[in-house]
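Page 37, top half.
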Amino acid sequence: MQTLYLALAVFLLLNLGAGMWRVLRGPSAADRMLAAQLFGTTAVAILLLLAQAHGNAALRDVALLFALLAAVTAVAFVRRAWEQGASDDAG
């Protein structure tokens, strides 16, 4: 079972390559932000798989921290984009 967890973690890590392409070539800031959210979600999944494979509870704590940071980042992006949209409409 540990081999399955590690294989899934490697598969998710390879999927981040597609996300990196979107971050580098994304046509808009929203596309880039969604790709960054993909990084956060995938990092949480990888950490949870590694925690299960190695029996390390500290990795679960780090995964929870990453999930919290991903949510805060999304809120900060939306607030910033909302303010820019309002100033673009007013001018």
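Page 37, bottom half:
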Amino acid sequence: MRIEIRNDSVEIDGYVNIVRRDSKPLRDRSTGQKYLEQIVPGAFQRALEKNPVLLLLDHERGRVLGSTEDNLQLEENVIGLRAHAVVTDPEVIQLARDRKLRGWSFGFIPRNVSEEENARDGMSRRYIEDMDLIEVSLIDTRKIPCYDDTFIETRSEDEEAQSDVLEVRADYFVNSPKDKKPIDLSNFKARISALDSKL
């Protein structure tokens, strides 16, 4: 991803997804089974012809940064879906200055999916042949990638109730003290005590 910071905007360019490339293992919400996913060449281009696409921050519906009708350009080429945006949002500019922009992600509704059983390591591979592309998102350090060069799958609870489930390819990164295992310092403390007793 290329980022150019200006006084009142940031210009961002890069690939949202590389077509014909496996995702990292994703989990089917209904069966719990892991699977791989690829976007079929042409799926993004067909989606772009259907409707405008929003530009969001971290897939947050309340953080609209623009759209393909304004400051976002999307095109599918032989590599994948390429995005170019000029964003004037102060938070995004600061994230860019702080080097906290991680990359791109996308949210879509699958419309035509085929499956290959036992494609790799006992997992099936799903091919997204047609979709409704709803949004692309700039991702900051609160998210982690699970697609190689792209992103992971997650869904919000309110989206699950809909018949057309929006899927996104990024997930939140949680880094809190309770997630970390305590460091065992007993040997270190014993060595200090031994040294103290010799003094």
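Margin note: Residues 150-163, 171-182 have pLDDT under 50 and may be disordered.
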